[in-house]
Every structure is written in structure tokens, then in C-alpha cells.
Design goal:
Length: 70
């Protein structure tokens, strides 16, 4: 696939933006994910906290992958 300089720059910029968004979501999921899952999903609090931490980890890894790809 042929990509010129402007396409590469746009693609890198989009990846950096997505990485910032995903890292922000990871932070919010770490802080508020367990409580939100527990309240809205009617899940036991301990399980909801574990799910929230797992979700934060997934978004963190995706954000770091996008950051390194950019």
C-alpha cells in the first residue's frame, strides 16, 4: 500500500489521539469503573471492582499499543 508523507502524518496524528483517548478511558475505568459496574449492572461489589480493574488494564494496553504505533 502506497502512503505519502501527508497520509502518514495524518495516520500518526490519529493514532496519537486515539491513544490519549484510550489512556483517559483507562484512568476513568480505574477510578470509577467498579462502582459504575456495581451500581448499573447490579453485580457484587468485589466482582465489579475486579471487572473495573480488568477493563482499565485492557484500555491501558490498547492505549500503549496505539501510542507506540504512532
Amino acid at each position: 500500500m502506497f502512503m505519502d508523507t501527508s497520509t502518514k502524518s495524518t495516520f500518526r496524528s490519529a493514532l496519537r489521539g486515539m491513544s490519549s483517548l484510550l489512556l483517559g478511558i483507562a484512568g476513568l475505568a480505574f477510578l470509577f469503573g467498579g462502582r459504575a459496574i456495581s451500581e448499573f449492572g447490579k453485580v457484587d461489589r468485589v466482582l465489579a471492582e475486579m471487572l473495573g480493574l480488568g477493563l482499565a488494564g485492557v484500555f491501558l494496553v490498547l492505549g500503549m499499543v496505539f501510542k507506540n504505533a504512532g
